[in-house]
Specification:
It contains 12 helices and 2 strands. The protein is mainly alpha-helical. The chain has 2 domains: about 110 residues, DNA polymerase, domain 1 (Orthogonal Bundle), CATH 1.10.150; about 180 residues, Intergrase catalytic core (hpI Integrase, Chain A, Orthogonal Bundle). Strand 1 and strand 2 form a beta hairpin. The N terminus is likely disordered.
Length: about 350
């Protein structure tokens, strides 16, 4: 149901001013969107072009929501039903091109990451589904080694599920595996007799699209996997099994369980941001690029079909490196000026 625009705005919301439907989206200003854009400029060094694109995409969303709901725009009112309706509007009614569609969705995902980080929504960037085969990393905040260490220390190793979770976190970061690739492993696929016999263990897997590749387990991942498997007293096939509900061979750990667990552990560890399993994969990729790994090598590690997908990480890496530079750089004091302005 569509409603006419009304100029009556509540103090806690936003409505376009009279005549706003005649203005281009880049000319309108939505307070919470402007706060998000300011944060992107200050914290992440966004360019003017990025700000313009995001403002246009998000103001278009705000204006559409006002028309659809007849209510002032409020971030807390966003839900998955409205997001899906917005996607249908872009595709079915506006018939936007693929590149524009992805830009609008990427802007919304970044906006949701900001809102979630400021406790203004329970939605996550992953709630906005991108076209098949496209991975958006624009909102990714990689975990530092200290944060990864804290996350790894959060599970209780006296509990079997605590050992399982520590092994899983280490596996994610050591291999860069997708969550489905990790949770789909069976115990027979892991050469347990070779664990902890070398600094690095090669592990052949069949990943997304049935494409084979090799991943690598570092010493820590091997040790934590061995500690977990040595304590298991069942012969169920899944490498990572659930301990909720009745026991059985089909009690494989689910992606939803992992997402909730990593959130709980992150809160317990006092992390500044709430990671997802994909955050560990992204951190793996970004840390490899920061260390100087060739992008084609990182492409092979991640199992990307196209190097263009991997190249999206370079933008996040450059943003992260800029932040580190600005925090760590010590400028040379300017030399005294010559009285007459001469330099020689």
């Amino acid at each position: 149901m569509s409603h006419q625009l009304t100029p009556n705005a509540r103090p806690d919301g936003w409505l376009p001013p009279p005549g706003a439907e005649e203005l281009p989206d880049s000319r309108l200003r939505v307070p919470v969107v402007e706060e998000f854009l300011d944060d992107g400029v200050i914290e992440d060094g966004w360019s003017g072009k990025t700000v313009l694109t995001y403002r246009q995409a998000l103001t278009a969303l705000a204006r559409w929501l006002v028309r659809e709901t007849g209510q002032p725009f409020a971030p807390g009112a966003l839900d998955q039903r409205l997001i899906r309706a917005w996607q249908r509007h872009l595709r079915a009614e506006l018939d936007v091109e693929d590149a524009t569609y992805v830009k609008y969705l990427s802007a919304l995902r970044s906006f949701l990451a900001y809102l979630r980080g400021t406790d203004q929504t329970a939605l996550a960037p992953e709630d906005v589904k991108l076209p098949r085969g496209y991975t958006d990393v624009s909102h990714v905040v990689p975990l530092s080694i200290d944060e990864l260490t804290a996350l790894l220390a959060a599970p209780d190793p006296t509990k079997l599920w605590g050992r399982r979770d520590r092994a899983l976190w280490a596996l994610f970061y050591s291999t860069g595996m997708r969550i489905a690739e990790a949770l789909g492993r069976d115990r027979r696929e892991l050469p347990s007799d070779r664990l902890c016999r070398a600094a690095v263990l090669e592990l052949p897997i069949v990943g997304k699209g049935r494409k084979p590749r090799v991943v690598f387990l570092d010493e820590l991942a091997q040790r934590l996997l061995k500690e977990y498997l040595d304590r298991r007293d069942d012969d169920y096939p899944p490498l990572f099994r659930s301990y909720r509900g009745p026991a059985g061979p089909d009690r494989r750990l689910s992606a939803r369980m992992v997402q909730q667990a990593i959130r709980d552990y992150a809160i317990a560890a006092g992390l500044a941001t709430i990671p997802t399993p994909h955050t560990l994969r992204h951190s793996f990729a970004l840390h490899k690029l920061e260390a100087g790994a060739d992008i084609r090598i990182v492409q092979a590690f991640l199992g990307h079909s196209s190097v263009a997908t991997t190249q999206r990480y370079t933008k996040v890496r450059d943003r992260f490196l800029r932040d580190v530079y600005e925090r760590a750089h010590r400028a040379i004091p300017a030399p005294p000026s010559h009285p007459d302005g001469a330099t020689g």
